[in-house]
Amino acid sequence: MSTEKKEMPEVISSIDWKWLAKLMLTSRAMDDKEENELVPNKDVLYQFSARGHELGQILLGSQLTHQHDAASAYYRSRPLMLSLGLSLEDAMAAPMGKSGGYSDGRDIGVVCNKPGLDGPTVLPMAGDVGSQYTPAIGWAQGIQYHQNELEEGEYDRAISVVLGGEGSVATNGFWSALTIATTQDLPVLFYVEDNGYGISVPGEFQTPGGNIANNLYSFKNIRIFDGDGTDPVEAADLINQSVNYVRDRKGPALIHLTMPRLNGHSYQDNQAYKPEELIQEEQQNDPLDSLKSFLVPDRFSDDDWNEFKDNAEQDIEEASEAALSRPAPDATTTKRYAFAEKKEDGSLDTQLVGGLAPSKHTFPESSEAPEPEKQRINIVEAIRRTLDYELETNPKVMVFGEDVGAKGGVHAATMGLQTKYGDERVFDTSLSEEGIIGRSVGLAYSGLMPVAEIQFRKYADPATEQLNNCGTIRWRTANQFAAPIVVRMPGGFAKCGDPWHSLSNEVFFAHAVGWQIVMPSNAQDAVGLLRSAMRSNNPTVFFEHRNLLDAKYARKPYPGDHYVVPIGKANMLQEGEDLTIVTWGAMCEQVENAVSKMDVSADIIDLRSIMPWDKQAVLESVRQTNRCLIVHEDTQTAGFGAEISAVLSQEAFKYLDAPIERLTMPDIPVPYNVGLMDSVLPTSDKIIDKIESLVAF
Question: Which of 63, 108, 114, 370 could form a cystine bridge with 559, CB 3.0-4.6 A?
C-alpha cells in the first residue's frame, strides 16, 4: 500500500477553516435546539433539518463574494444563509413565526430570502420543489444584460447559483432552466445536493441510475463536477473549480455532491422507509465527523474543537432566547403588500430588490388625455407601437417569448422589433412557459422590465406555479422583494373556437394574489393599459382578445406616445337610465351592438381592468339605474361576474329593482365548429333577450 501523502488542492490554504467549523457547529446546534426543544414545545411548527448538508453549502457560501452574485435556494439551505450573513437571531425567529426577519411571520421559517444590499442576494425561496431554478436563470441572464447591453462593468464575473436536491432534478423547472442555460451560455451554477431520497422516494425514481451528473455528461455546453459532499478537501476543491469555471465565463456548470440526510425530511418524518443498516451507514458518514478528522489535530486541538462546539451551543441558546422574546408579528399589517403601496407622505413604499423602482428609474411624461392621430389602427399595431416606444425610451425593457423574434409573434405584435433593438432585447425562448415566466421573475429581480408573451391563454397552464409565486413575492417577503413583470396573453374566441386557443378564464388570474389583470377592448385602451402595465410596480397580465386584434370595432386612432390608462379605471362606453351593463373584452362589441338595436337607455361600462376593478363606477351607475346585467365570455360558475354580483348585492341591494342578471358562457370549453360556438357564446341576440326581461321585471 502506498503511503504517499495526497497533494492538497491550492484552494485548501485559502479557506478560513475556523470560521467554517464554527458555522457548521452552529448550524448543527440550531437543528439540535429545534428538534430537542422548540418543536416538542410547539415554539417551532415546521422544521426541516439541514443535518448532513452543511459542509457543501458553507463552502459554497464562502465562494459567493461578488456584489451581484445571487443564490436561488430551497428549504434545506439554511447553512448557506448563515454563511452569507443571516443573523442567528433571525434564523431562529423565523421558524418560530416571530416578527422581523425575512418574512415577518408570513412564510415558513426556512423559506428565506436576503436582499443583496451589502453582498450577494438570496432570491426568495419557495415551498414548492423545483420552482427555484428558472428565476435563477433570469438572474443569470440579467447579469449578462447588465454587463453587455447596459455596459455596466461591475457585473463582470458575477454568477447565479441555484441549489436543489436530487428529487428536484425531475421537475419541469430543472429541465427548463438547464435548457435555457445551455442554449444561451448563461453564467449559472447548478448545485445539486444528493442525499438519495426525495422524502421517502429513492433517487433512482427521480433520474435514471440515480445520479444526474452521469446523465448530463453528454449535454453540450455545460461542465459537470461530481463528488463527495462529506469530504472537506474534495468538496472544497470541486466547489472552487465549478464556481470559477462559471466566473471565468466558460459557460454554465453543474456540481453534484452526495451527502447523507441525517434526519427525516422534516421533523415528523421518522424515516421508517429506510433500512436500519442504511441509517447507520449514513450516521457514520456524517460530514461534521469528516471535518473534525480533517482539522483535528493538524489544524486545531481537541480542546479547540470542543470550545468551538460549546460556543456554538451557547450562541444558539442566546439567539433562541432573544428570538423567543420577540413580539408576534403585527396582525393589523397582515393584509399589506399584496400590491405596491404608498407611504403616508404619498411616496412609493419601495421594495428593496426587484423591478425599476429601487433604482429610482424615471419614465417619460405621461397623460390620460389622448392626442389621437388621424388614422385608425388595430390592436396589433397599438401593441407594437407601444412596445416600440417603451423599448426606445427604457433600456431596461426586454420583450420575449416563443416566436416573438424574427417571426414577429404568431399574431405579428412584435414584428420588426428584434431587427430594430437586437436579439438581447427582443428574443425567442424555448418552448417552456415555466421557463418564460420563471426567467421573467429573475430578470425583474435583477432590476429589469421583462415583457413576456404567452402565445395563448391555455398555454399559460404549465407556468401556473411561477405565475402564482410571482404574484405573492411582495407579500411573502414583507415588501423586501417584488417582481413587476408584464405577461402578454392572447385568448378568447376568434374566427372559430376550440378548447385550446380560445380559452378566456380571466377569473383564474383575478384569484391569483398580487396580479393586475387588464383586458382592452380597443386600440386606444390597449396603448394606455400596456404602457401603464410596463411602468407599474406590480406584475400585470395584459390580455389580448384574439377576436379584437384586427377587428373593425376595436380600431381607434393611436392616442400618442404619452397616453396612459390608469389600471383599475373603467370606461363608460355610453350613458343611460334604464339599466347598467357591465362587461369587458370582446363582449363590449356584442353589448353595444345589442343596445343599438333596442329602444333602451343603458349605461355600458367597459371595466378594462379586472384586478383591480372599478367598484365605484359600477356602484354609482347601479344606484342610478337600479338594474344590472353582467356580460362576460368566461364560464359562469365562479366567473368574475359572480364577484361583481356579490358586491352589488351587498353594497347596492336597496337600490335594486330587479335581480342582478349574468350572461356568460356555460361551463364548457369553447367549441371549434362556428355554429356550436355561436350557440354558447353571449351574442347580441342573447343580450337583447336578457335586457328585455330585465327591464320588464
Answer: 370
Q: What is the CATH number of domain 357-557?
A: 3.40.50.970
CATH class of segment(s) 571-696: alpha beta
Instruction: Classify the C-alpha dihedral 312-314-320-323 as positive or negative.
Output: negative
Cα four-point dihedral sign 178, 180, 181, 184: positive
Domains 357-557 and 571-696 share a fold: yes
Q: 216-246: per-residue pLDDT in tens?
A: 998 999 999 999 999 999 999 999 999 999 9
Helix, coil or strand: residue 485: coil
**Is residue 186 within 8 Å of 155, Cβ to Cβ?**
no
Cα 292 to its chain centre, rounded Å, is: 40
pLDDT tens digits for range 334-364: 999 999 999 989 899 999 999 999 999 999 9
Cell of 570: 373603467
Q: CA-CA distance, 233 to 383, in Å (whole number)?
A: 56
CA–centroid distance for 116 within its chain: 18
Strands 602-606 and 579-583: what pairing?
parallel
Whether 501 is a known active-site residue: answer: yes
Average pLDDT (251-268) is 93
- Global pTM reads 0.96
Q: Which three cell numbers stand for residue 599?
A: 329602444
DSSP conformation letters of 566-596: -TT--EEEE--SSEEEEE-TTHHHHHHHHHH
Give me the phi and psi of 663, to 5 degrees please: -125, 120
Using alpha carbons, select from 177, 189, 179 the residue that is nearest to residue 63: 189
The 10s digit of each residue's pLDDT in 56-105 is: 999 999 999 999 999 999 999 999 999 999 999 999 999 999 999 889 99
Half-sphere exposure of 526 (CA within 13 A, CB side): 32
Per-residue pLDDT of 576-598, as tens digits, reads 999 999 999 999 999 999 999 99
Q: Is the dihedral of CA 83, 87, 93, 99 positive or negative?
A: negative
Active-site residue among 53, 265, 501, 545? 501
Cβ-in-10-Å burial (0-12, 13-18, 19+) of 682 comes to: buried
Q: Of the candidates 200, 202, 204, 257, which has an alpha carbon nearest to the alpha carbon of residue 226?
A: 257
Q: Where are the domains of the chain?
A: 10-325, 357-557, 571-696
Q: What is the CATH number of domain 10-325?
A: 3.40.50.970
- The grid coordinates of residue 516 equal 393586475
